[in-house]
Design a protein that fits this description.
Structural class: alpha/beta
Shape: globular
Distance between the termini: 61 Å
Number of helices: 29
Radius of gyration: 37 Å
Bound molecules: zinc ion
Strand content: 15-25%
Oligomer: single chain
Strand order of the largest sheet: 6-5-14-16
Number of strands: 29
C-alpha cells in the first residue's frame, strides 16, 4: 500500500477493500470470552424480500455504531444477523412472479408453491444482506439466521406446544380482521386503521305486525344488513321502549328479526337503533353471544356475497352495497344518506380494506403473558429511549387483547395441530392433537387417519422468539448463556406492539429472563416536506444511490448527524453533501499531517512526555479540546444521543482542529512537541470517528507510522481529563475573536488580503494584556499583522480605524494602507444611495394600491429587503464612526 494518501479520497475502492479485509479476518465474530463483559444486539431481521431503504440505513447504522463503539470499549460484542421469512409479503411477491406465467398458487398446489418460494429465496433472499454489507454492518455473518431454518422452526413449534399445554393457546370462532385479497386472518395490529370519508346510511325496517310502521337503523356498511339477526336499542331510550320484544321484517331477504334492548347501545349514534350482524361486526358478535342470536355469514373469503345473500350472491361487497341501496330506494326503505367519517382497517401488506369476519382461528391468551412484561418495564429492568415510549408500551400492554396467530396462507410455519377424522366424526370439537412431531396415530382412538391443520402461523409468532431462537433455543448452549439477555434493541416506533412487546413477553415466558436491557426507538425517515418516504409515493431516496455518489461514510454520517434522539428525520439529497464534504476535510487534513510528519519524532510515551515537557498554549489547547470532545462523545453515545456525538466530532475536527490548530502550527510544524501533539490528536481522533465513519478512518489509520492491525481492534482512547484546561480554552477563544475581528476590519475597508498591516490592541485590564502577550504570535500569524502593539488605553488619533470589542479596542493605523478621506467619501456615498432606496421602498409599502393588490409573499419580500438595507446602513455607520 502507498504510504502517502492520494490527493483525492475515493470511497468506493476504500469501502470494498476494507469490508472484505474485516470479514476475512473475522473481526465481526463474537466469541465467548469469560474475562470480558458481553454486549450483544440482535438485528431487527429485515424481510427476506427486503430492499435496503433509508429506514434500514438509519436503523443499522445506529446498531453498527454501538457495536463498534462497545468493541473498542473492551466489551465482547456480537451483532446477530438474520432475515425474516415474512409470510404474507413473500407469498405476495412469489404470487406476482407466478402471475407473469399466468399461474395462480392454487394451480401449483401447496407443496410445489412452497418449493417455488424456497427457490425464490435462494435467488433473491441475500439481496438485503449484501446491501447491509455495503452499509458497513459489523454483523457476525457466520451466524446468519433465517426464521424458517429447521432449528428455528423447531423453536416455533416448541413454543406453540408449550403454550397449548399451558392452555394459553386456544381455537375458536371469533370476528377477526380478514383481508379479502390476501385471503387470510390478520391480527389487530396488522389491520392499520385509516380514516375515510364514508356515509351513514339510514335504512327503514318495517314492523312485522304493522308494515306501515318502521324502525330506522343507521349503518356504514349496508351490505351486511343481509346478515342482520336483530335490531338493538338502549333500554333507557323512551323512543323505542314500546317496541322492545316486537319483531321486524328484514327487507330484501324477508327474515323476521327481533328488537332487543341492551345498555351498551349508544342512544346518540344515528337513530339510537342499531342493526345487529353477529357474523360481521365484533360488537354485534358479543351481542349475538349474549342473546343467543343467529350468526349468518353473508360473504365468501374473497369478500363476495354468498348464498345467504340470496339474489346478491356472487357480487363483490361494494357492488352489492350499490344494488342493495338501489333496491331499498325503490322500496322506499332508504330514509337518507349522510356523509360520515369512519375509520376502516386496512391490510398492512396490501392495503385492502379488511372485513370483520367470523371465522375459526387460533389465538394466544395475552393477559397472563403481559403481566410479567409490564412489571419488568415498570421496575426499570428494561428501559426505553426516549423515555416517552414507556408510557405507550404500558398503555398497550394494560389493554392487550388476545392475539390471532393463524393465517390462511401457505408460506410459513405450519401449525403443529392435527385432526383425527374418527374422533371428529363423533364430536367436531374433539379430535385435536397438538404435537411437536407428526403423531403416528390418534392418542385417543388409535386411528391413523390424521390431517394437519392447513394454516400457518403469523410471521410475528416466529419473530417474537428472535433474541433466543437465534441462539438455537430450546437447545441449551454456552453461546446462549453468555450472550443472552442481549444488551440493546434498536428499532422503529411502528413495531413496538408487533414485535418489541411480544419479544419481552416471550423472553420472560420461555427464558425466564428479559430479552434486552435497553430499547432505542429511532424516528421515521421523511422527505423534506415531512411525508413518510415510500416507494409508492415516489419520494424515497435510495441509500445505495447515495453510497454510489457520496460514499457509505458520508451516508452514515449525514443520516446520524440529523437524527436527534427519537425524532423524525427530514431528509433531502443535499443533506448528504455535508457528509461527503466532511470526509474530504478529514482526508485532506490527514494528508497534510502525514506529509509533514517525521516518524522518528513521535515515538514517545504521551503520559511521560506531557509531564516532562512544557507545552505551548496552542498545543495545550488542542489537547484540551480533544479530551473534552472525547469525554462528550463517550457520554453522548452512552446516552443514545447519536446526533450530538456526531456533531461534537464534526465541530471539533472541522473548526478547532482544521480551521485553527492546523493553521496556527504551520510556522512551528517541525518542532518536536507540535509533531507529537498533531500526530497524537489525529491518531486518537480517528479512533473515536471510527464507529461513525468506519471506512475512511481505517484507510487513514493504515497509513499511520507503525500502524498495527485494524482500527476495529484498537481501544477507545483513555480519557486524560487532567489535560482538559478551561483557562487555555478561553485564552485561545479570545485570540480567535481578535483574529476574526481584524479579518473583518480588513474586508470592511477592502484592504488587500495579501498585504500586511499593523495593529494596536488597547486593554485596560492588566491580566488580559498579559494573556495577549502569549497570543501575540498567533494573532500576527493568522491576521497577517507585522507589528502588534499592546497599550493600556485607547487614544483616538487621525488616520485610523477602531473597533470596540469586549473590553478592548482593536485599532488599525491606516497610514499607507488606505486613504481615510477616500474611504469616508466612499461610505458616505454608499449610505446616501441606500437611504434613497429606503425612501423608495417605504413609499411603495405605504401605497395601499400596492399592498392590497400584490401577492402577500411579494409584499413580505419587500419588507424583508427594506429591513436588510436598514441593517446595512447601520453597519456602514459603525464603520464610518470607527474611522478617524
Ligand atoms: Zn392483504
Ligand atoms: Zn381419534
Amino acid at each position: 500500500m502507498d504510504k502517502e494518501l492520494s490527493k483525492q479520497y475515493n470511497p468506493e475502492t476504500t469501502e470494498n477493500k476494507w469490508y472484505k479485509t474485516w470479514e476475512e479476518n473475522k473481526l465481526f465474530s463474537g466469541k465467548i470470552s469469560p474475562e470480558k463483559t458481553p454486549y450483544s444486539i440482535v438485528i431487527p431481521p429485515p424481510n427476506v424480500t427486503g430492499i435496503l431503504h433509508m429506514g434500514h440505513a438509519l436503523n443499522n447504522t445506529i446498531q453498527d455504531i454501538l457495536i463498534r463503539y462497545k468493541k473498542m470499549r473492551g466489551l465482547e460484542t456480537l451483532w446477530m444477523p438474520g432475515t425474516d421469512h415474512a409470510g404474507i409479503a413473500t407469498q405476495n411477491v412469489v404470487e406476482k412472479t407466478l402471475a407473469k406465467e399466468k399461474l395462480k398458487r392454487q394451480d401449483l398446489g401447496r407443496e410445489k408453491f412452497v418449493e417455488r418460494v424456497w427457490e425464490w429465496k435462494q435467488l433473491y433472499g441475500a439481496t438485503i444482506i449484501n446491501q447491509l454489507k455495503k452499509l458497513g454492518c459489523a454483523c457476525d455473518w457466520d451466524r446468519l439466521r433465517f426464521t424458517m431454518d429447521q432449528d428455528y422452526s423447531a423453536a416455533v413449534t416448541e413454543v406453540f406446544v408449550r403454550l397449548y399445554e399451558k392452555k394459553l393457546i386456544y381455537q375458536g370462532y371469533y370476528i377477526i380482521n380478514w383481508c379479502p385479497r390476501c385471503q387470510t386472518a390478520l391480527s389487530d395490529e396488522e389491520a392499520s386503521h385509516i380514516e375515510l370519508e364514508g356515509n351513514l346510511y339510514y335504512l327503514k325496517y318495517p314492523l312485522k305486525d304493522n308494515p306501515r310502521e318502521f324502525i330506522t337503523v343507521a349503518t356504514t356498511r349496508p351490505e351486511t344488513m343481509l346478515g342482520d339477526t336483530a335490531v338493538a336499542v338502549n333500554p333507557k331510550d323512551k323512543r323505542y321502549k314500546k317496541y322492545v320484544g316486537k319483531c321486524l321484517v328484514l327487507p330484501l331477504v324477508n327474515r323476521t328479526i327481533k328488537i332487543i334492548a341492551d345498555n351498551t347501545i349508544d342512544m346518540q349514534f344515528g337513530t339510537g337503533a342499531v342493526k345487529v350482524t353477529p357474523a360481521h361486526d365484533p360488537n354485534d358478535y358479543a351481542l349475538g353471544k349474549k342473546y343467543g342470536l343467529e350468526f349468518i355469514n353473508v360473504m365468501t373469503p374473497d369478500a363476495k356475497m354468498n348464498e345467504a345473500a340470496q339474489k346478491y350472491r356472487g357480487l363483490d361487497r361494494f357492488k352489492a352495497r350499490e344494488e342493495i341501496l338501489d333496491d331499498l330506494k325503490t322500496l322506499n326503505l332508504l330514509e337518507k344518506i349522510s356523509p360520515h367519517k369512519l375509520s376502516a382497517g386496512h391490510c398492512y401488506r396490501c392495503n385492502t380494506i379488511v372485513e370483520p369476519y367470523l371465522s375459526k382461528q387460533w389465538f394466544v391468551k395475552m393477559k397472563p403473558l403481559a403481566r410479567p412484561a409490564i412489571s419488568a418495564v415498570k421496575k426499570g429492568q428494561i428501559k426505553f429511549h426516549p423515555e416517552r415510549w414507556t408510557k405507550v408500551y404500558l398503555n398497550w400492554m394494560d389493554n392487550i387483547q388476545d392475539w390471532c396467530v393463524s393465517r390462511q396462507i401457505w408460506w410459513g410455519h405450519r401449525l403443529p395441530v392435527y385432526y383425527c377424522r374418527n374422533c371428529q366424526a363423533k364430536n367436531p370439537e374433539k379430535g385435536i392433537v397438538v404435537s411437536r412431531d407428526k403423531p403416528e396415530q390418534c392418542p385417543k382412538c388409535g386411528s391413523a387417519d390424521l390431517t394437519q391443520d392447513q394454516d400457518v402461523l403469523d410471521t410475528w409468532f416466529s419473530s417474537w422468539l428472535w433474541p433466543f431462537a437465534t441462539f438455537y433455543w430450546p437447545k441449551d448452549n454456552a453461546d446462549q448463556k453468555y450472550f443472552y439477555p442481549t444488551a440493546t434493541l434498536v428499532t422503529a416506533p411502528e413495531i413496538i406492539f408487533f414485535w418489541v412487546a411480544r419479544m419481552i413477553m416471550a423472553g420472560l415466558e420461555f427464558k425466564q429472563a428479559i430479552p434486552f436491557k435497553d430499547v432505542y426507538i429511532h424516528g421515521t425517515v421523511r422527505d423534506s416536506q415531512g411525508k413518510k418516504m415510500s416507494k409508492s409515493l415516489g419520494n424515497a431516496i435510495d441509500p445505495l444511490e447515495i453510497i454510489a455518489e457520496y460514499g457509505t461514510d458520508a451516508l452514515r454520517f449525514s443520516l446520524i448527524s440529523i437524527t436527534s434522539q427519537g425524532q423524525d428525520i427530514y431528509l433531502s439529497k443535499e443533506r448528504f453533501e455535508q457528509g461527503r464534504n466532511f470526509a474530504n476535510k478529514i482526508w485532506n487534513a490527514s494528508r497534510f499531517i502525514l506529509i509533514n510528519l517525521k516518524p522518528e519524532e513521535i515515538r514517545v510515551d504521551l503520559c511521560v512526555y506531557f509531564k516532562a515537557e512544557k507545552l505551548d498554549t496552542v498545543n495545550r489547547w488542542i489537547l484540551s479540546r480533544f479530551y473534552a470532545t472525547l469525554d462528550k462523545v463517550g457520554r453522548e453515545l452512552d446516552n443514545f444521543k447519536f446526533n450530538e456525538a456526531a456533531n461534537s466530532l464534526y465541530s471539533f475536527f472541522w473548526h478547532e482542529f482544521c480551521d485553527w490548530y492546523l493553521e496556527l502550527i504551520k510556522p512551528q510544524i517541525n518542532q518536536k512537541q507540535t509533531q507529537v501533539v498533531m500526530y497524537k490528536v489525529l491518531e486518537k481522533y480517528l479512533r473515536i470517528l471510527h464507529p461513525f465513519m468506519p471506512f475512511i478512518s481505517e484507510e487513514i489509520w493504515q497509513r499511520l507510522p507503525g500502524a498495527e492491525n485494524s482500527i476495529m481492534q484498537q481501544s477507545w482512547p483513555h480519557l486524560q481529563s487532567e489535560l482538559i484546561n478551561r483557562g487555555d480554552d478561553l485564552l485561545m477563544e479570545l485570540s480567535f475573536e481578535i483574529i476574526n475581528t481584524i479579518r473583518n476590519m480588513r474586508t470592511e475597508l477592502d484592504v488587500n488580503p495579501a498585504s500586511r498591516i499593523d495593529i494596536q490592541l488597547a486593554v485596560t485590564d492588566k491580566n488580559t494584556r498579559k494573556s495577549l502577550e502569549i497570543l501575540e504570535p498567533y494573532i500576527k500569524n493568522l491576521a497577517k499583522v507585522d507589528n502588534l502593539t499592546l497599550t493600556d488605553k485607547y487614544s483616538p488619533q487621525k488616520n485610523q480605524y477602531a473597533v470596540v470589542f469586549k473590553n478592548l479596542h482593536v485599532v488599525m493605523p491606516l497610514e499607507g494602507v488606505v486613504d481615510v478621506g477616500q474611504q469616508i467619501k466612499k461610505i458616505d456615498l454608499k449610505v446616501e444611495k441606500l437611504k434613497l432606496e429606503v425612501k423608495n421602498k417605504e413609499a411603495m409599502l405605504e401605497n395601499k394600491n400596492f399592498t392590497a393588490r400584490a401577492p402577500v409573499e411579494i409584499v413580505e419580500g419587500e419588507r424583508e429587503k427594506l429591513s436588510q438595507i436598514r441593517e446595512q446602513i447601520k453597519k456602514l455607520e459603525v464603520i464610518r464612526n470607527g474611522l478617524r
